[in-house]
Design brief:
It is built from 14 helices and no strands. The protein is mainly α. The protein has a domain of 102 residues. Helix 10 crosses helix 12, helix 11 packs antiparallel against helix 12 and helix 12 crosses helix 13. The relative contact order is 0.06.
């Protein structure tokens, strides 16, 4: 277990730091809960340092919660420093904490390099945080959409699902960028773009089902895919216009 700097103050800080680095994750979780329940600026450095090395997801989330309990005036500048850390987990957890704090001023800190981070976990977190913090102006959201579509086709299923969710959460402004990406010569990128657009149009569609349908469309090619879509739309229209029942007078529906 990586030790935490205990030079920040009182014996109480030392005890808390020791608890936050205990072997038992339940002890670490309780320690983080205790710090958050009794906010003390003196624990800021300890919490930030622990975020960078904590191996347990639930404890990390509790550490971020404890940081949100402190004043943003002192927390935000310190968390910002972690965005430049050489440790991928420090960068990822700092981004996660910024999303929890939700201060829109932090949008200016979300650089393109973070959205393109070589570490998938950092990039996934950056995509989600960017959508949370982006200003409401359409040009800002459109610019973010244009940047995010550059990552289509990246990584494993989890990474692609995270990117699709981020683009869907941005809303209608993503449509032009996604439509352009569906014509990408890389079939993986094109399929991911198609799947994301399908999810945007119908969020109830499962990601895996959307990917399979997108692959089919890519295989068909633009013209045949458009024809298939038109035929499907025509069939849906005919179905909606057809009588609700084919029963003749006097016949029972159970026959």
């Amino acid at each position: 277990m990586v030790p935490i700097n205990t030079t920040h103050g009182t014996p109480q800080h030392t005890r808390v730091a020791n608890a936050l680095s205990a072997e038992d994750s339940s002890v670490r979780l309780q320690a983080a809960l205790a710090v958050g329940s009794n906010p003390d600026p003196g624990f800021l450095e300890t919490l930030v340092e622990r975020c960078a090395v904590e191996p347990d997801f639930f404890v990390r989330d509790m550490l971020s919660w404890a940081l949100t309990r402190l004043s943003p005036e002192i927390t935000l500048p310190r968390v910002r420093q972690e965005l430049d850390s050489e440790r991928a987990q420090a960068r990822s957890q700092a981004l996660h904490t910024l999303s929890k704090i939700g201060d829109k001023s932090a949008w200016a800190w979300i650089a393109r390099d973070m959205l393109r981070d070589a570490d998938d976990e950092v990039a996934r977190t950056a995509w989600r945080v960017a959508v949370v913090l982006v200003p409401e102006e359409e040009n800002e959201k459109r610019g973010l959409a244009d940047e995010l579509v550059l990552q289509l086709g990246r990584g494993d299923r989890n990474a692609r699902l995270s990117l699709s969710r981020a683009l869907v959460d941005l809303g209608e402004v993503t449509k032009p960028a996604l439509e352009k990406a569906t014509a990408n010569p890389d079939p993986t990128v094109a399929a991911h773009a198609h799947a994301t657009e399908l999810l945007r149009q119908n969020p109830e569609t499962g990601f895996d089902a959307a990917i399979e349908e997108a692959k089919r469309l890519v295989t068909l090619g633009p013209e045949r895919a458009a024809a298939a879509a038109a035929a499907a739309a025509s069939g849906a229209a005919e179905t909606s216009e057809a009588p609700e029942t084919s029963e003749k007078p006097g016949e029972s529906a159970d026959c």
